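dude i think i finally got it to work??
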Amino acid sequence: MVKQFSSRNRQLVLLVGYLLVAILIWLAVMSEFRLDDSFITYRYSRNFAQGIGLVYNAGDNVLSTTAPLYAILLGVLSLIVPDFHLLGSLIGTLSIGLGGWLIYNLLPRRMSESLRLWGGLVYVLSSPLWLALGMETAFWIMLVLAAVWLVQEKRWAWSGLLVGLAILARPDAALPAGLLGLMLIVASVNRISTTGGWWRAIIYYGVAAAIPLLIFAIWAYATYGSPFPVTLSAKSAQAVLGITGMGVNVTTWEGLRLILRSLMLQSPLYVALALLVLFGFANSFNASTVIVVMWGALHLLAYMLLKVAPYRWYYAPLVPGAVLLAASGLDYLFKRLNLRRIQAAPVLVGAIAVFPLVAQVTSFSLISQRIQSGGPVDVMLPIVDWQAYRETGEWLNKNTPLDATVGVAEVGQIGFYARRYMTDYLGLLQPDVAAGLKRDDFYSWLVGYAPDYLVFQRFRGAALVLYNYVIQDDAWFNVNYRPVTEFDDARYSSGPVTIFKRVTNKLAITPQPVQLDFGNLRLVGVATDANAIPTNGGSVRVRLDWEVVGMLPDDLHIAVKGLSMAGGNPSFDGDYHTPNWHGHFSTWHGFVVPNGVVPGTYTLLVAVGPMGGPYQEQGVGTLQVARGP
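look at this
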């Protein structure tokens, strides 16, 4: 009894120790850090807590979060801690500390106590986890590690429950959940002829894991019509266009290389950690280590096969396996030195163990410097955007009507503080925008949504762009929008943030019946602004509804023109990449009619053809011009 009490007491001391280290890192280095994407979840959580629903925009019945459990947890706990940044950081910090304690317990007990303690400490000091602070990353990884540990302790039902909750915190957890289930199936089959109740482990685990998933699936289907978030299609569409969180056209494998390169530049001593990981493969593993290492490897492989746009936090699940391997590598070296009867083996192993810790502390020193002073973009250092983004969001909250719509690229902090209806051209919030993004069509978002306010970052010294489209040269944009204010922070390397206000009315559109073929692209609908264009000119919005009926050229040019208006043909001309054009969809086009147009009816002409021609031109509708006031 005394021995059991002492063991429990000791585990509690270790847990508190790891938590204190994590809290110290947070307070000393990471308390000011804000990750923009975490504020997307914070807005979901706030809306949930306020009874609006688990939605980003009030009234949008769309599931856009891949972390519903985490969002709900934040929403409930915000009734106690109303500061979402503080709450998210605290959950992440405690999850990292608890994860360190779990790593200690997952390492084989045959290892020396000091090596297991070292493994837990390396986990807590891993900057990839901290640079996702505020998001669900550390939380769901901790749940998975806890599930693996509970299987190790033969608590199958509790393990299943935690892994089911982990999937609701992040769908990526389905992979380790499957690995644990496979391991239990194999173990159960091996015990068929030797043990009664051999089936209990997999049944208890499977049923417990399924319960939270079924509850959520039924609720999500009843609420949204689907349990699957629309952001999955948005991330896929971003990857098609080469839009990633780590640079243009960065693949999952290339992203890993960039992360490792950045860490090595921060401290060459990370080489010691890499070598220990390699030595770890020479050691013998327990079942828990095998599961965690396989989880990391298969996670990386899955992202490579899915070709999803990579972000820094997508690589965090590789950390637990790397840490377990590094500890195994250190244990392997210690055993080899002992076999050679080297007296200084403990000293040598201890010295090697210090190198990774020094490298990790160096990373935190650089992170602290970056938070204070800013600097160029680096995949393993913070982007200090939070002051400029918060000021932008707060200005929108104070200076725009409650029903204003705001168009942005980054919907995190700006959307959280603005408290307005948001739309983003990267497709995270609206499924139709994600579909347009996959078709390589950014412009349709701008003209179709025509938000009351637009927020753009202008890279210092560069042109104003809508991703790869130079928006500052667009006539329709320049007629409809004017800059009203700008926010900057010298630490933010991506330049000032400018708010534009729409200075024209957003008119309803009127459909016109049509069915015309442009080769294998069939026009099945046209819609234009409902009001007549005044004689002193104005902007025009045109929606073209298409159906693909055959093979298209890979690169297509579409022009939309008003014929013979004030001595010219005002038009929109755009080039499109078409490999993902399928079925039915719409494109939006905007152009400007000049002053001096005679009242009357004018032909709306559409020209379609491969880039460089030839083009097929057809009149598809009409534009009305009336005498201005």
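The chain has a mean pLDDT of 91.
im so relieved honestly
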